[in-house]
Structure formats: structure tokens, C-alpha cells
Write a structure and sequence with these properties.
GO terms for molecular function: ATP binding. Pfam families: ABC_tran, oligo_HPY. This protein is α/β, with parallel strands linked by helices and 383 residues long. 31% of the residues lie in helices and 19% in strands. It is globular and about 70 Å long. Bound molecules: adenosine-5'-triphosphate. Adenosine-5'-triphosphate binds next to strand 2 and helix 3.
């Protein structure tokens, strides 16, 4: 598909979908494990479903180890999946290298966290971009075509004038400029989807916004579908149209970013927000970084033997007996269209019965300011 074709397509068209996506990694077996019939596995991702739409950013948020990068790698076809499906324009896709893989990556590009690692230090910007354009058949026929395509890529990522950047090596660039080159290289494929795995977390705080603004601009101008993976829920509010929260390999909340970050429903999302390093970036947080948010306790669970029922229940200040026994489905919150949480607090039966954790009787959702007075603090491995 050409750029002009993609610009003409409807904005909310689903491009890439995860459907019940599941990934279990085998664990190296110890002697005593050999006696066990069921081999141990890491439940990295379980039953994850969402859609990436043209011209929209979807944020996947969660603490370290929640399975975000594994989802990106599954969508990029870099891991075989244990179960579930990846659908590109509605068609199930499973590619393992070769020509099919090249055709897939032409449409779905992955941008990694560390531009130092993803650019070869012995090659110039010109080399990296030319290689991408050639591999994906976008270099044109003549040297002049190639020069135009190179200048166009650098201009798109706002490295201008292009001739100043073409013949420099990665170490001569700042971190932000290197990430822009990595984005330009991804654009060399003329993709429909960008999977951006923590694209700004290794950059200085002062230049993060510039790179996020660039991605936003590309989303709008090229109508890209973008998956933005981050542990920083504050940036999801700013940058993403939709936000999905993951905990211990499962999706726990989703909805439009404004609602998920300003009226979080799941106790884990509340904990994530109350632990955000800069509470001023999210209204409703207090100056001490905890007021106005949830408090939980403990560490993230083992993914080899994940907790039964809701995986957050051992840390949840609102846990009920049911939470340990039954896996909560996605339950509609009802405040804004599309807002859901996988939490038994939002089951009408819970609200009607004892509702021990719903201080606001008119609303099954515990308001952020009213919940979370119990328990100790801290978010295990949040970075
Ligand atoms: N190749 C692998 N083999 C075994 N376990 C893995 C592998 N890759 C990831 N895992 C495990 O899967 C779980 C999810 O990891 P993943 O990297 O997807 O989480 P994440 O949310 O992206 O974390 P981070 O922000 O630290 O990258 C972790 O427990 C991790 O140790």
C-alpha cells in the first residue's frame, strides 16, 4: 500500500489485531521438575486481545515484567505464539522468516527502546536508511530517486537539513537524534503499523516530548496505527488515544486514555498512577505522589505459578474471596463508552451484595480519592 492510499483509508479502520494472544516460555528444568508431569512455563502473556486502528495510538502500560514487550514481539512475529491469533486486516498471519516475514515487516515495524543498540556504530545514517529503503523496495530506480527518498525520510523525522545528518555515525548524534534515525529507518519500509517498545524511556526527560510529538505527527500525517509501550502511564494520557493496562501477563483495564488515567477503575491502575514519579502530570494525584491514588502492597507475582483468579488479588486492598477463586472477565464501567476493567468490584452482583470496597454507594467504582487507605505502599518493580 502506498502512502497516498493509506492516507485515504478511513481513520478508525482496524489494521492489526491481537486475539486471545498467549505466550508461555518454557523454563529450564531442574532435577526435581523432571519428576513433574506438567513442564514449568512462564505465563508471560495470557489471553490478550486488542485492535490497533489507523491513525490512532494505543498505549500498553504496566510495570516491568507485565508482558508488554512480549506482546510487541508476538505482534512483530518475532516469537511463535502459544495460542491466539495475530490478524492483519482481518487475516490470520503466522510467519516464520523468509519472504513472508519480509512482506510482514514491510507493513509492521518495531522500534526498540535503545537506539544505541539498534544502530550499528560502524555505519552512517545514510547506510542505515539506504538499507531499509532498498530491502523494502522503496529506494527508487536512480541515484537521484534514492537521494530524494533519503532526504524525505530525514525531513519526516525533523532531522534537517538532511545533508547535515546523512554522513554522520550514530555516536555523533544525541540520543534523541539517534531515536529519530531509528524511526526514519522504520518509515523506510512505508509501514502501516509502528510497534514502539518504550521508545523514549532511555532518552533524557527534556527530549522525550520532542520524540513523542514526532510520533504523534507521523500518526496524523501518515495515518499510522501505533502501539506505544510504556511503564509511564502519565505519558500514555498525553500521547495515546486508547490505553490498555497489563498486570502479570493479563489485560486488567482499557478505555480511552483520558478516562483510564483520570478515572482509573482497576485497583492496579490506581496503584500505578499513585506510584507515578511526577504526580503533577496526572491531575487527581497529590503532591506526595500517593494521595488521590490507590495503595497496594507486595511484589508482582511469580509468572511460573501465577495466582489463581485475579492475578492482582494478593496485592489488592479490595480483594474478596471470589477474587482468588474466579478470573474476572472484562466488566463495563459505564462512565464512558468502551471503559472496562477485569475486576469483580464492577460486577453488579458484587455491588448489590456486600460491596465491601465500594465506598460510594451510587457508584460501583471506588472513587480514586476514597479508596486505598489500607495497606502499605510501593509498586514492586516499577521503573
Ligand atoms: N525469552 C524468554 N524466555 C523466558 N522468559 C521470558 C522471555 N522473554 C520474557 N520472559 C518473561 O516474560 C515475562 C514478561 O516479560 P516482558 O519483557 O514481556 O515484560 P515487560 O512488561 O515488557 O517488562 P520490561 O518493561 O521490563 O521490558 C517476564 O517474566 C520475563 O522474564
Amino acid at each position: 500500500m502506498t502512502l497516498s492510499e493509506s492516507a485515504a483509508a478511513p481513520a478508525d479502520e482496524v489494521v492489526l489485531e491481537a486475539v486471545g494472544l498467549t505466550k508461555h516460555f518454557p523454563v529450564r528444568r531442574r532435577l526435581r521438575d523432571l519428576l513433574s508431569r506438567t513442564p514449568a512455563v512462564v505465563h508471560a502473556v495470557d489471553d490478550v486481545s486488542f485492535a490497533l486502528r489507523r491513525g490512532q495510538v494505543t498505549a500498553l502500560v504496566g510495570e516491568s515484567g507485565s508482558g508488554k514487550s512480549t506482546v510487541a514481539r508476538l505482534l512483530a512475529q518475532l516469537h511463535p505464539r502459544t495460542a491466539g491469533d495475530v490478524r492483519l486486516h482481518g487475516r490470520s498471519t503466522r510467519v516464520r522468516g523468509g519472504r513472508a516475514f519480509r512482506a510482514y515487516v514491510r507493513r509492521v515495524q518495531l522500534i526498540l527502546q535503545d537506539p544505541f543498540a539498534s544502530l550499528n556504530p560502524v555505519h552512517t545514517v545514510r547506510y542505515h536508511l539506504t538499507r531499509s529503503l532498498r530491502i523494502h523496495g522503496n529506494a527508487g530506480r536512480t541515484a537521484a530517486d534514492l537521494d530524494r527518498a533519503l532526504a524525505d525520510l530525514l525531513t519526516r523525522v525533523r532531522l534537517t537539513p538532511p545533508e547535515r545528518f546523512l554522513d554522520v555515525f550514530p555516536h555523533e548524534l544525541s540520543g534523541g537524534q539517534r531515536q529519530r534515525v531509528a524511526i526514519a529507518r522504520a518509515l523506510g519500509a512505508n509501514p502501516e503499523v509502528l510497534l514502539a517498545d518504550e521508545p523514549v524511556s532511555m532518552l533524557d526527560v527534556s527530549i522525550r516530548l520532542g520524540v513523542l510529538n514526532l510520533l504523534q505527527d507521523l500518526k496524523e500525517r501518515l495515518r499510522l496505527a501505533i502501539l506505544y509501550i510504556t511503564h509511564d502511564i502519565a505519558s500514555a494520557r498525553y500521547f495515546a488515544d486508547e490505553t490498555i493496562v497489563m498486570y502479570a501477563g493479563r489485560m486488567v483495564e482499557g478505555g480511552d486514555s483520558e478516562t483510564v488515567t483520570q478515572q482509573p477503575a482497576h485497583p492496579y491502575t490506581r496503584l500505578l498512577i499513585s506510584s507515578a514519579p511526577d504526580p503533577d502530570r496526572i491531575t487527581g494525584g497529590g503532591g506526595d505522589g500517593t494521595a488521590g491514588g490507590e495503595r497496594g502492597h507486595g511484589e508482582p507475582p511469580s509468572l511460573i505459578r501465577p495466582p489463581t483468579g485475579c492475578r492482582f488479588h494478593p496485592r489488592c486492598p479490595h480483594a474478596m474471596p471470589r477474587c482468588a477463586a474466579e478470573l474476572p472477565p472484562r466488566l463495563t464501567i459505564g462512565d464512558r463508552p468502551g471503559h472496562w476493567a477485569a475486576c469483580w468490584l464492577y460486577d453488579p452482583a458484587t455491588a448489590a451484595a456486600d460491596a465491601p470496597a465500594a465506598p460510594d454507594a451510587d457508584r460501583a467504582v471506588p472513587p480514586a480519592a476514597a479508596v486505598g487507605r489500607e495497606g502499605a505502599t510501593t509498586l514492586g518493580e516499577a521503573r
